[in-house]
Design goal:
Blueprint (H helix, E strand, L loop, with lengths): L1 H11 L1 H15 L5 H29 L3 H24 L5 H8 L2 H13 L5 H18 L10 H21 L8 H23 L5 H4 L4 H25 L5 H8 L2 H8 L3 H9 L10 H18 L16
Helix pairs in contact: 1-11, 1-13, 2-3, 2-11, 2-14, 3-9, 3-11, 4-8, 4-9, 5-7, 5-8, 6-8, 6-12, 7-15, 13-15
Length: 319
């Protein structure tokens, strides 16, 4: 569980880094849209990460099994489609609402498992879900008076459902014998392939893809995304998630907005000085402390033996 928490910390670095990269690229290509910048950064991030893994996974890739190829493409399709829907949904709903709805996978996963196993989750799991949902609501500052299921909300919920499929696909017993580097390499390159059509559709011209990285700062931000948020996070996730069940993994991953909020207290100013952009630090607030505290409490409870049950929260995990 500690390694998966570390993964969420690595993922959280992507939020301020992606924001700083987008601001830098807007200065380089002011006439281009946010869809182009977002899709291009995802394409470069996952595509280059996959290419970097190839030399280390070459021996495994030469003997790539059918199930390893299948799992890698399943993760790529669920993850890539989820990212696309999440990005489009952000154009039609506030970021705080999107952040709240994206975490819906912590509810979708135990509901799916409850239907699959025909039994309710244990009291411990239900309490952890309640703490996480409450924490994310507080942290995102969701105003339920203005929450409606329009296009953006529907797309974000569908994205969360696809992320649920990604988490369940990683834990499926069918893939228990797969080698981490082999299917991770397929997943990374496959995600780039899923995103590539959107880059082609939104790029002003082919040269714009190069101009978007025509500064040391833009290349530096991309390197951070590749090394820490993609290679580090996904290799660790793909290896260690097999040692917990999908319900626990979904709850642990909800710690991501807590780490992201903490990084946003100081990283934006550092990035701004480096890249010459206007990106202000966020401030420490009661909302951050309260929401982060609830999510942290859920993760502490998840790792304790209190309210230990024999139901869904103790389902078998991959060996």
């Amino acid at each position: 569980m500690q390694m998966l928490l570390f993964c969420t910390a690595l993922w959280s670095l992507s939020f301020p880094t992606m924001k700083a990269l987008a601001l830098t690229q807007q200065g380089l290509l002011p006439q281009s849209g946010s869809w182009f910048f977002s899709s291009l950064s995802v394409l470069c991030r996952f595509g280059l990460a996959g290419l970097l893994v190839v030399p280390f996974a070459w021996r495994q890739l030469r003997g790539l099994g059918r199930l390893e190829l299948e799992q890698g493409m399943v993760l790529a399709l669920f993850g890539g489609a989820g990212i696309l829907l999440q990005m489009d949904g952000l154009a039609y709903t506030p970021a705080s609402t999107s952040a709240f709805l994206t975490q819906a996978y912590c509810v979708f996963i135990p509901v799916w498992l409850a239907l699959l196993h025909r039994q309710w989750p244990s009291p411990k799991t239900l309490l952890c879900i309640a703490l996480v949902v409450a924490g994310v609501v507080v942290l995102a500052g969701v105003n339920f008076h203005f929450l409606k299921l329009g296009r953006g909300e529907q797309e974000t919920l569908l994205a969360s459902l696809l992320f649920t499929g990604q988490i369940l696909g990683l834990n499926h017993p069918r893939y228990a014998g797969n080698r981490t580097l082999a299917f991770t390499c397929v997943m990374l390159l496959g995600t780039a392939l899923v995103i590539a059509p959107l880059v082609c559709a939104t790029a002003p011209d082919a040269a714009a893809c190069l101009r978007a990285y025509a500064s040391p700062a833009a290349c530096g931000f991309l390197a951070l995304l590749i090394l820490f948020c993609t290679l580090g996070a996904f290799i660790l996730m793909n290896h260690w998630q097999r040692y917990v069940n999908a319900t626990e993994a979904g709850l642990i991953y909800c710690a991501e907005p807590v780490f992201a909020s903490l990084l946003a207290l100081f990283l934006p100013a550092l990035f701004s000085r480096w890249a010459g952009i206007g990106y202000a630090n966020e401030t420490l607030s009661v909302r951050l402390l309260a929401g982060g505290g609830l999510i942290t409490a859920a993760n502490v409870l998840l790792q304790s033996r209190w309210l230990e049950g024999k139901a869904i929260d103790r389902e078998p995990v991959n060996p």
